[in-house]
């Protein structure tokens, strides 16, 4: 068994090394490094913050940030989704500019991105639909089924936002080319106005507009990076300014320390995002880009670069399935009589046990990666999808992913215990956006 595992590991590493060697010399490896770093930080953060424990024979869903308030400061380092949007801006800016130079179409450009991002999500939805359905039919308490499904599918919220940000790249790129950093300033001003309307004047639901203003502002900084407008010295100034702004907003404003939601807290900095999270994003972006020269030198090392290529080749699978692995480990611990769950979260014994639990999470995640990583590979280009199909498909997909994060696929009513209409939305949206007759086929280039 160990020989087989070693052979698999060697094969995976060899393929990653071959890809690493084939990377063109002009490729900015630091972009790939930040992408991998941001997702892995999110995974570690989720595995740390979820702190279930046994109470009266039942598993309680503890939350470390609520149990140990001092850990809320750690979210300034672990809430690194801003870095993913920064990297997205860099990649989308480079790609869209190249598409324009070659006379390519928006439909072909965006359909490829939509397909690469949504394909890995569909197996996750299908598996958890079956789990929720059969769990309910087997008589497992609906609340337990709902809690497990909700936890496992937390990662999908991010994709709905990122897909919408990517969908408007032609317009945000045009704004960047015309106004430069002023386009970032306009988005920051919009975020300020939204927070004032929401927090000062209690305008209902307006705060959800900051899903656009906050994440588009960070994405816009990625455009600046792609054009060399944020060299390390200037980036450091941005980082310091963002950190000072964040300190002032948290110290003297209404914003909590935690950059993610804390159970029982009156205000969340992430759902929807606030001006404080935008300040954190500016700080992280600035400091990350200030370290770029050192980072690129580090990535000249083949082993380090191969590791980055390896992680990036399965990055969406790691992100989407890491909480499923967590749930599987928790179920196994519960079935074994609650082994390891009788330790009080946040205690010294709890912290000392984290490495053991992390090994278990990784062990549970590895076979999931082996099963589902191939869904990240782009499908064969089927041609140019009509614009209306892309828009309708995008709306259906994002509605399904957003509703999943908000209310869960598990239903307290009905025979199946599943909101089948919600599960169907991403599948129908993907079908509308990707399959069937195409508007026109383009000739392949020689």
Q: Main β-sheet, in a few words?
A: 2 strands, antiparallel
The global form is: globular
Element-level helix/strand string: HHEEHHHHHHHHHHHHHHHHHH
Query: What is the spatial order of strands in the main beta sheet?
Result: 1-2
Helix content: 55-70%
Q: Please work out how many helical segments DSSP would assign.
A: 20
Number of domains: 1
Strand element count:
2
Q: Percent of residues in beta strands?
A: under 5%
Structural class: mainly alpha
What's the mean pLDDT score?
A: 88
Low-pLDDT residue spans: 436-446
What separation lies between the terminal Cα atoms?
46 Å
Query: Whole-number radius of gyration?
Result: 22 Å
Explain this structure to me?
The longest helix is centred in the last third of the chain and has 25 residues, at 348-372. Mean pLDDT is 88; it is low at 436-446. The protein is mostly helical and 446 residues long. The chain contains 20 helices and 2 strands. A two-stranded antiparallel ribbon has the order 1-2. It is globular, with a radius of gyration of 22 Å. The chain has helices at residues 2-22, 29-49, 64-67, 75-78, 81-101, 106-118, 121-137, 142-152, 156-167, 169-179, 181-200, 210-226, 232-252, 275-290, 292-298, 302-312, 315-335, 348-372, 387-407, 420-434; strands at residues 53-55, 58-60. The chain has one domain (30-434).
């Amino acid at each position: 068994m160990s020989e087989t595992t070693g052979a698999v590991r060697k094969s995976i590493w060899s393929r990653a090394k071959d890809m690493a060697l084939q990377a063109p010399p002009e490729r900015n490896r630091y972009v790939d490094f930040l992408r991998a770093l941001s997702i892995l930080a999110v995974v570690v953060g989720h595995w740390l913050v979820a702190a279930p424990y046994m109470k009266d024979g039942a598993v309680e869903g503890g939350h470390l940030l609520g149990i140990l308030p001092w850990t809320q400061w750690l979210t300034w380092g672990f809430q690194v989704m801003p870095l993913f949007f920064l990297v997205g801006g860099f990649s989308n800016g480079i790609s869209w500019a190249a598409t324009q130079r070659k006379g390519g179409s928006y439909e072909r450009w965006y359909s490829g991105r939509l397909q690469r991002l949504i394909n890995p999500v569909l197996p996750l939805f299908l598996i958890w639909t079956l789990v929720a359905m059969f769990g309910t039919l087997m008589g497992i308490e609906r609340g337990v089924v709902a809690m497990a499904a909700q936890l496992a599918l937390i990662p999908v919220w991010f994709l709905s936002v990122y897909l919408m940000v990517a969908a408007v790249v032609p317009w945000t790129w045009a704004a960047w080319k015309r106004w430069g950093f002023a386009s970032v300033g306009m988005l920051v001003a919009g975020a300020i106005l939204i927070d004032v309307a929401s927090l000062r004047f209690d305008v209902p639901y307006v705060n959800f507009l900051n899903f656009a203003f906050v994440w588009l502002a960070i994405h816009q900084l990625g455009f600046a990076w792609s054009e060399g407008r944020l060299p390390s010295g200037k980036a450091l100034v941005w980082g310091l300014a963002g950190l000072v702004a964040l300190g002032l907003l948290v110290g003297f404003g209404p914003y909590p320390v935690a950059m993610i939601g804390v159970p029982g807290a009156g205000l969340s900095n992430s759902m929807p995002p606030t001006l404080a999270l935008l300040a954190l994003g500016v700080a992280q972006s600035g400091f990350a880009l200030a370290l770029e020269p050192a980072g690129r030198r580090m990535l000249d090392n083949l082993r380090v670069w191969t590791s980055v290529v390896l992680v990036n080749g399965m990055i969406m699978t790691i992100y989407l399935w890491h909480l499923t692995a967590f749930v599987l480990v928790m179920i196994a611990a519960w079935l074994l009589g609650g082994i390891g769950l009788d330790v009080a979260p946040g205690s010294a014994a709890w912290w000392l046990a984290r490495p053991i639990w992390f090994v278990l999470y990784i062990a549970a995640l590895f076979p999931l990666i082996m099963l589902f990583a191939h869904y990240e590979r782009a499908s064969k280009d089927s041609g140019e999808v009509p614009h209306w199909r892309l828009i309708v498909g995008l709306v259906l997909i994002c509605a399904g992913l957003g509703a999943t994060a908000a209310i869960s696929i598990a239903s307290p009513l009905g025979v199946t215990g599943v909101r089948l209409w919600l599960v169907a939305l991403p599948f129908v949206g993907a079908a509308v956006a990707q399959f069937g007759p195409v508007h026109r086929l383009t000739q392949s280039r020689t």
